[in-house]
Every structure is written in C-alpha cells, then in structure tokens.
UniProtKB/TrEMBL annotation:
Lineage, broadest ranks: Bacteria, Pseudomonadati, Pseudomonadota, Gammaproteobacteria, Lysobacterales
GO molecular function: diguanylate cyclase activity
Enzyme class: transferase
Membrane spanning residue stretches: 35-53, 208-231, 238-258, 270-289, 301-319, 325-346, 358-378
Enzyme Commission number, as recorded: 2.7.7.65
Protein source organism: Dyella dinghuensis
Gene Ontology CC: plasma membrane
Record's keyword annotation contains Transmembrane: yes
SMART domains noted in UniProt: GGDEF
Residue ranges occupied by any GGDEF domain in the UniProt entry: 461-593
Sorted UniProt keywords: Membrane, Transmembrane, Transmembrane helix
Positions of region (Disordered): 581-606
Protein name stated in the entry: diguanylate cyclase
InterPro entries, per database record: 7TMR_DISM_rcpt_extracell_dom1, Diguanylate_Cyclase, GGDEF_dom, Nucleotide_cyclase, Rev_trsase/Diguanyl_cyclase
NCBIfam families per UniProt: GGDEF
Length: 606
C-alpha cells in the first residue's frame, strides 16, 4: 500500500454532506395546518362540559367540601352580620350577582354548610383566585364567631389563599361571610372546607410542588443564561431570561416577596412579569426556529407581539384592573404563536423543533384548561389550576432545555460532518490521483509543518530532500500511447511509496517527483540504494528505455530549526544533483547498477 503524509490521508467512509441554508419561503398551506391543529385543540377544551368544573378534580390532596357560594356587590360602609342568626336577614336585604367582576371591585361572598365528618379541627379556605384584601368571618349556630384577614395587600395569603383554622362541631350549621376587595380577579372565587389533617396534607403537597417547580425554573434559567453568555449564543441567553421571568411572575403570584420576604411590591404585581414575558419568549422562538430564514412573515408577526407587550406594560400600571386580562391575552397569544411555529417547523422537517414543540404542548394543555377559568367563563376544573400551570411551565422549561441540548448535538454533528468533509476534500486535493502519492500541495504542507516545529534530537537524524525526474516518459507516450505512460508513472509511484515509514514521496507534476525523509547517514545510504534499485527494476521491466534521475540533499546534522528558505535551498541543491545525474546518464551508458553517489550535503545555519 502507498504511504501518505498524514495531511493527505483520506478517512474511510467520509461523506461530505452540505445542508442548504437558502431562504425557504413559508407555505401558507403549512401555516394554516398548524393554526388549524391548535384551534381544534383549543376549541375542544372550551367545549368540555362545564359540569366538570362543578366538582373540581382533586389533583394535589384529599377532596374537600365545597359549599355553594352566593356573591353580592359590596357597598361602602357595609358591615358583616354579627352572628349566625343575622345571616338570613342580612342576605335577604341584598341582591345576588352572578359572579365577581373579573376587572375587580368589592364583593361579599356567603356560603353555608354543615360538617358531616367527626372531629373538631377544621380549616376554611378562601381559594382559587388572586385578591388583594379579604376579611373572612366564620359564624356558627353554636355561637362561633371567628374573623381572619388575608390577601396580597396584607401579606398573609398562602399560595394564594386565605385560611381560617376553626373548631366546628358535627351537626351544627355554619356560615362563611367574606368581604373581598381587589383590582382584578383571576378566577371565580371558591370556598373550601376540610379537616385540618386533610388541609395539611394538601398544603404540604402543593408547597413541595410549588417550590420544586420554581427551583427547576430558577436553576435552569441561571445555568442556561450563563451558558449563553459564555458561548455568546443569544438563544441560550433569551431562554435563561425567559425562565427567570417566569420565576418572578409565579413567585409574585404565590406571594413569595410579600408573605415570605415581607417586601411591599406595589404597584407591581405578578401581571407585569407575565406581560414582560413575551418580549423574550417571542425572540427566543424566532431565533431558535430561525423564522427570519424560514418564514419572515411570521417573524414580523412575532415582533408585533413584542411591541404590543412593551406598550401594554405601562398600560397595566395606569389601568391596574386591566392588567390581568392583558397578561392573560398576551401570554395566550405567545404560547399559541410558539406552539404553532413549532408544529409548522416540525411539519417542514426541522429536526430541532421536536423538543421545542413538545415543550409548548406541556404548557398549552394546562394553559387551555385554565384560560376559560381566567376569563371567568367557568369555575376551575381542578383544585389548583394555577399550580398545575406552574408545573406545566417547569416541564416546558425542562423540555426547552432538552431542545437546546438537542440543538447543540445537531450543531456538533453538522460540524463533525463538515470537518470530516473538509478533511476528505483537503486529502483529495493533496493526493495525486494517478499514483496515489501526495501532490505539490501536500509537499508544501509538509514543509510548512516541519518549519513550525523544532528538531529536538539532532543526534537521531536530520531532514533529507530527494528530487527525482522520470526519464523516458515522453518516449513511452509517443511510441506506446499515454495509457502506457500512465502505467509507467503508476509503477514509479508504487515503487516510491514502498521506500519506508519515515519517507514520504510526492509527485510534483508531469515526470517530476520528490521525497522528504528523516534520518541519519544510514537512512541516506538506504534511500540511495532504494532509488538505484528502483531504476534497475524499471530498466529491467516492460520499460527498458525508462529510468529515474535523482539527487539527494541533506540538512546539517546539528540544525534544530528550519525555515522555508532552508528547505528552498535544499530543494535547489537536490535539483542540481538530479540534473548532474541526468546529464551523466545521457553522455554515457551506466553499467554499474549502483550509480555514483549524487548526495550533496548543504551546511546552512538558521
């Protein structure tokens, strides 16, 4: 087998494959399919029977008793009933309304119930909505009168709910009267009644899931953001910012700054963070899915959502009653936008959209459940839809992290394919196709490599240059045809390739060959004998008029570093020796199979 210089080796099975990055216009039909799939899913959720919400499914703990709630509009200066006996007359003087106004206001919520389980330790919970201030009054026919305060403004709400621990006696009748005030509401309020043990189990589960979900979002956000800053990839940075904004939004919603840290955040609340979310959310989607390249029209639509979010931010502070509806609308829009773009990209065969689309499905499903609840269309279907949405966000964050990791793998695979392809292309460009030897490019590359490193052990040897000219090639071409000439070149190439491991042979063009070798005087002698033997074999084969003329030049034995000028001088001296050898062959018939020594030692300094 021929021996090649490492720079000219070709890898087995190397395949240079290029993926076209030409601009691909978006297909309106494909876009329509993506939107149709999402619209069908969304309408299916909205079409679910509202009776499901009459008895919310207990996802996070034991089922609790949920007595019916009657809602009344609260007027300034009104007072709550003083005892259980006054409740009937007090409610008779008021006209009930269908539900609280989602744009905020003051309301009375009244619910009556009779405990049907043994035990005296109970918890009454004002649940299922965000509110600023609530006074919870529990009255009983056994003389019970207990009052509690809760809400974001009082920094005593709990995930977010107001709880009243009371002692209730089975068989007695009780009423819960709540006066609630808020700039907006996030759902139809609900009153839950359950034993203290059941409430403790539910609260433990919900607290663990809340903290775990926030921890996942925070950890992924910080890690991925720093990765993005480190590698200067804006997709990672935007994703990290998106996760951290979600942490702030949900942290404010669950009262972490107010109830846990004692921080007064007015007038900012959780809605401003969710309004800010599309600013980075959309840009991440556009950049990750390369929408400017695949679908500029949808990229422009995404930036329209960004501009709308920026404009909506001060509006939410000026008109706080609209803040939640604005946030709900923008978040719903951006999730639909990202999910539809993921489906569309997946439909078009964009591999990186796999985990991306799955991530938005993870948040779209709970989001579709909670969306009609947020608009006050139906009561909540599950016992804590907000926590379920937070968990969906944490799943979304993990799947988006998988999407980024998958993207890294795809990029690395592409780079590896490109690297192998470039290696093969360079190798092919560095190999003479006829003889399999390195060509002039490979010869120059090897010289460049030698000049970049030092000869650390001059005692072991030095560099040798041999210039070789093939005699008789023109005669063979003219008399026997170019195919026979090619056979002659191949025979010379095969002979040169067998000279040894530390010897690299090159065909510089036409009938000109060169050798670069490393070794001592014995190596030089072996090279001379090998070239003389190759000359004899050619003359003794089917090419009696052919032979090789050669000259060998060695660098000084004590030279450690070599420059391009040093090698240029070695080549010139080897050329002179080769032409001297050729001249002698023309003037006399060489009978000695071992020609005279044509070696010239060039003594050059650095």
């Amino acid at each position: 087998m021929p021996v090649y210089h490492p720079q000219t080796q070709t890898g087995k099975g190397a395949d240079l494959r290029y993926r076209s990055h030409a601009k691909v216009p978006a297909s309106p039909r494909s876009l329509g399919r993506g939107w149709m799939v999402l619209a069908f899913f969304f309408l299916t959720v909205l079409a679910c029977p509202t009776s499901w919400a009459n008895d919310p499914y207990p996802l996070f703990g034991p089922r609790c008793e949920e007595p019916a709630v009657t809602t009344y509009k609260a007027m300034p200066g009104e007072r709550a009933p003083g005892n259980y006996a006054d409740v009937a007359s007090w409610t008779a003087q008021r006209t009930p309304v269908t539900r609280v106004n989602m744009l905020g206001g003051d309301f009375w919520l009244v619910s009556q119930f009779t405990p049907d389980q043994p035990g005296n330790d109970w918890v009454v919970t004002f649940d299922n909505t965000y509110y600023e201030n609530a006074r919870i009054l529990v009255l009983g026919d056994d003389g019970l009168v207990r009052q509690f305060e809760s809400g974001a403004a009082t920094a005593t709400n709990d995930m977010p709910r107001g709880t009243a621990a009371v002692s209730l006696s089975p068989g007695h009748h009780y009423a819960v009267v709540i006066e609630v005030s808020s700039k907006f509401y996030t759902a139809i309020p609900r009153i839950d009644v359950q034993t203290r043990a059941e409430y403790h189990k539910r609260r433990t589960n919900e607290s663990a899931l809340m903290l775990g979900s926030l921890g996942v979002l925070f950890g992924l956000g910080v890690f991925i953001m720093f990765v993005g800053l480190w590698i200067r990839d804006r997709s990672y940075t935007l994703y990290g910012c998106q996760a951290l904004i979600l942490v702030l939004g949900w942290g404010f919603f669950f009262g972490v700054p107010q109830g846990w840290l004692g921080i007064n955040t007015d007038p900012v609340n959780f809605t401003q963070w969710f309004i800010l979310l599309p600013v980075v959310h959309v840009r991440f989607t556009i950049r990750f899915l390369e929408l400017w390249r695949h679908s500029p029209r949808m990229a422009r639509l995404g930036y329209a959502i960004v501009i709308a979010s920026i404009i909506a931010l001060p509006i939410s502070l000026i008109f706080p009653s609209l803040a939640f509806l604005i946030a709900t609308f923008l978040v719903s829009t951006v999730v639909l936008f990202s999910a539809s773009m993921g489906i569309w990209s997946l439909w078009r065969g964009v591999r990186r959209a796999r985990f991306f689309t799955l991530a938005y499905m993870a948040v779209l499903i709970p989001g579709s459940i909670i969306l009609p609840v947020n608009f006050g269309l139906i009561p909540s279907i599950v016992d804590n839809a907000d926590l379920m949405t937070l968990m969906g966000n944490s799943c979304e964050a993990m799947l988006l992290a998988f999407a980024l990791a998958d993207h890294v793998k795809l990029v690395e695979d592409g780079r590896e394919r490109f690297r192998r392809g470039m290696q093969e292309a360079v190798a092919k460009a560095s190999i003479d196709a006829l003889t399999g030897l390195g060509n002039r490019l490979a010869f120059n590359v090897m010289i460049e490599e030698i000049t970049r490193r030092e000869n650390v052990d001059p005692a072991a040897g030095t560099w040798l240059i041999a210039m070789i000219d093939l005699d008789g090639l023109k005669l063979v071409n003219d008399s026997q045809g170019h195919e026979r000439g090619d056979d002659l070149l191949s025979a010379v190439g095969e002979g040169l390739a067998r000279l040894g491991d530390l010897i690299r042979a090159f065909r510089l063009g036409g009938d000109e060959f060169a050798i670069i070798a490393y070794g001592d005087e014995h190596t030089q002698e072996r090279l001379e004998k090998a070239l003389a033997e190759l000359d004899r074999r050619l003359r003794g084969s089917d090419f009696p008029d052919a032979g090789i003329s050669y000259g060998i030049c060695s660098a000084p034995a004590n030279q450690r570093r070599f420059s391009n000028a040093d090698f240029a001088e070695l080549v010139r001296e080897a050329d002179r020796a080769m032409y001297a050898h050729k001249s002698r062959r023309r003037t006399q018939r060489v009978s000695d199979p071992h020609p005279a020594d044509q070696t010239v030692t060039v003594l050059r300094g650095d």
